[in-house]
Design goal:
GIY-YIG endonuclease, Rossmann fold, six-stranded parallel beta sheet, 5 domains, alpha/beta, 18 helices
Length: 673
């Protein structure tokens, strides 16, 4: 009697392992790892899963039959499985959670039609609209160093100051690979950046450019997935995408570019897997034996250290392309201006003078304020009542244009009250300043100026971002007011002024990375100023002009900044000298979450003496109705790291399975930001 054949099937659920099903004889020939199948789950549920492994080892239970095989060809191969296993192990989650994040929704149900694309000959326009722009002497030297270094070091870091022309170097490297009919992945930190880059790449590479991100419809994402699965058709493929692009089914990838590698947008927050696409892309490159090039004007502290220790090959480009001069930076002391009653709304006299001069010269300005909305909160002048979210421990932000108060954590919103609900006073006043308020005040001060706002509220529709950016590029907007979006790699030729309105808010955030983020944001947004024939101007408003980070931005002194930051990180045991794991313990009952956190922390401290901190309440200790406690684990970067992470995962699994605390949620965030 022939032995039975079985398949281990992965399901898009937070299950600790795959489930084993019997392969009926009629399916044995068609079954392959990477194909989707339909299986029973529970009493009546039918669900779509992926064949992970085929074998003849009978399980200890009576295996149920696979119902059907969906695909004619596998939608994944062993490379993707290897990557998924690494992600699940490193980020302390399940393979099913990785599967759920990796596959487009269309592939998680029983649709058969997309596999056809493997049989079809793709028809693409291999002609480019424009030729490659010749590199400068400095760029050409970097290009040659990178190409020659690819065979020696797998990971490279291009540290190029803003406007140095890093993208042109990328284009020449991409062209070299596409000419060999290979695939190139070009990662960007968020969708906002793809607008300009897509146009730029399509102008050079035509229809060889494939774009993949979450704002596309599921059908469009599936089409791109299928084209990449089919592989290059003779002219190569350039895949432009955000963090989820690391999960695409590459066939012949030969180069990975990670632009703005320092950006925190590469880190997935919720749900699991809470991965950093930059780090996953490096692993992806090692699996495919494809070199990885990271680029930034302000590299992350971790990447900077890796490069200076020789683990990454470092390339530095210290001159702006086309002879553009570095912008001149001025400090505006907002504390002194307030004492002298010289402030007009949120603006110092120096900031207003700079804006006025820019408008007179018919040039453009960018104003950066890292808060959206009209005002961070409103307050009763009589009883000091402040409206709070019903589900989160935060104040509600005023959005005046929509006459609503909104929670920026859970989205809860309510109308702005006419009276204080606590004392019935009508004396409700705003506190603080958001981008919406900046826009309103500027319109009063400069009534003839054409203004636009670039933040999450103004770009909710898929076309809004592109429209705002295009108008600014064409000169239809004089002043662009925005949040972090305006700092991220955008290139405008007519901008001569950049204003940073509240540097203190960046520097004073209670987090060990606050100085790093402040330095990066101020340096990046400052780099938007400057034209080929005119030196740009940057005005930074702050209450403490002597702050060391402010001075380092002023002097463009990256070496001093990194040396100071690394010294402090080493002293207090923070990355890059340790690996952090933050456990978020959540429950609707405050007493339960506190007891569970203390219990879990005790067990962890017994297993990892001296390496566990907490529990403690985070800055926002209740979100979406769940109270939160944090436990922070610091692990040394050594060969025992993987063993200790497995021990932590097992301890958490056993803690949850005891069911002492009903409905308790424990989330592991590895390398938290």
């Amino acid at each position: 009697m022939p032995r039975e054949t079985y398949a281990d099937v992965m399901l898009p659920l937070a299950l600790p392992e795959t489930l084993t099903y019997r392969l009926p004889p009629e399916f044995c020939e068609a079954a392959q790892p990477g194909k989707r199948v339909q299986v029973h789950l529970g009493k009546n549920k039918i669900i779509s899963g992926l064949i992970w492994r085929i074998h003849d080892t009978a399980p200890s239970f009576e295996a149920r039959d696979i119902i059907s095989i969906t695909d004619e060809y596998p939608i994944l191969d062993s490379h993707q499985f290897t990557l998924w296993e690494w992600i699940a192990g490193y980020y302390l989650c399940t393979p099913g959670e990785v599967m759920k994040a990796a596959l487009p929704a269309f592939l998680k149900v029983d649709h058969r039609d997309p596999k056809r694309i493997r049989k079809q000959q793709q028809v693409t326009d291999n002609q480019s609209p424009s030729a490659l722009v010749p590199l400068s002497q400095a760029q050409q030297q970097i290009f040659q160093n990178i190409v020659s270094g690819f065979s020696v070091t797998p990971v490279h870091l291009l540290h190029g100051i803003t406007s140095s022309g890093k993208t042109e170097i990328y284009i020449h490297l991409i062209h070299q690979q596409l000419e060999q009919n290979r695939q190139v992945l070009y990662l960007l930190p968020e969708i906002a950046l793809t607008t300009q880059i897509i146009v730029r790449m399509q102008n050079v590479f035509g229809n060889r450019v494939l774009v993949y991100h979450s704002r596309f419809t599921q059908v469009r994402r599936l089409k791109v997935w299928s084209q990449i699965l089919a592989g290059p058709d003779g002219s190569g493929q350039l895949i432009l995408g955000v963090r989820s692009s690391v999960f695409l089914p590459f066939r012949d990838i030969s180069l990975i570019i990670i632009d703005e590698e320092h950006e925190q947008s590469y880190k997935q927050q919720d749900p699991a897997p809470r991965y950093n696409a930059r780090d996953v892309a490096i692993i992806l490159g090692s699996i495919y034996k494809a070199p990885v090039l990271m680029g930034s004007a302000t590299p992350s502290v971790e990447s900077y250290q890796q490069a200076h220790q020789g683990k990454y090959q470092l390339h530095e480009l210290n001159e702006r392309f086309g002879g553009i001069g570095r912008p001149e930076i001025f400090l505006a002391d907002s504390r002194d201006a307030r004492k002298r009653k010289k402030m007009q709304g949120p603006f110092t006299p120096l900031m207003l003078r700079a804006i006025d001069e820019t408008l007179v010269k018919k040039e453009q300005a960018i104003l950066f304020q890292n808060r959206r909305g009209y005002s961070p909160y409103i307050e009763c002048q009589e009883c000091k009542w402040i409206p709070k979210c019903q589900y989160c421990d935060v104040s509600l932000t005023l959005h005046r244009s929509e006459s609503k108060l909104e929670c920026h954590y859970c989205g809860y919103a309510e109308r702005v009250p006419n009276r204080c609900p606590s004392c019935s006073s009508t004396g409700l006043s705003t506190r603080g300043t958001g981008t919406e308020r900046i826009e309103e005040d500027l319109q009063l001060l400069f009534p003839d100026a054409r203004l636009a706002r670039l933040d999450l509220d103004s770009t909710r529709s898929s076309s809004a971002f592109s429209r705002i950016i295009t108008d600014f590029e064409l000169g239809n907007t004089d002043i662009l007011i925005g949040t972090q979006m305006v700092s991220k790699g955008l290139d405008f030729s007519k901008v001569s002024l950049v204003g940073i309105l509240d540097a203190d808010q960046l520097l004073n955030y209670p987090d060990f990375r606050s100085y790093e983020r402040s330095f990066q944001l101020m340096t990046q947004v400052s780099g938007r100023a400057g034209r080929r024939d005119t030196q740009g101007m940057v005005v930074i408003q702050c209450s403490d002009p002597s702050h060391p980070v402010i001075q380092q931005v002023m002097d463009n002194n990256l070496v001093a900044y990194y040396q100071n930051e690394l010294k402090e990180r080493h002293q207090f045991g923070y990355p890059p000298f340790t690996r952090l794991i933050r456990l978020n313990i959540k429950h609707a009952d405050l007493k339960v979450v506190n007891e569970a956190a203390i219990d879990l922390a005790y067990q962890l401290k017994q297993a990892l003496p001296g390496k566990v901190m907490g529990p403690q309440s985070p800055v926002v200790s209740r979100i979406q109705g769940k109270h939160i406690q944090n436990i922070l684990i610091k692990l040394e970067r050594n060969p025992e790291l993987l063993i200790r992470k497995k021990a932590i995962a097992l301890l958490i699994k056993n803690f949850i399975e005891k069911r002492t605390y009903s409905s308790l949620v424990i989330q592991a965030d590895v390398d938290p930001l």
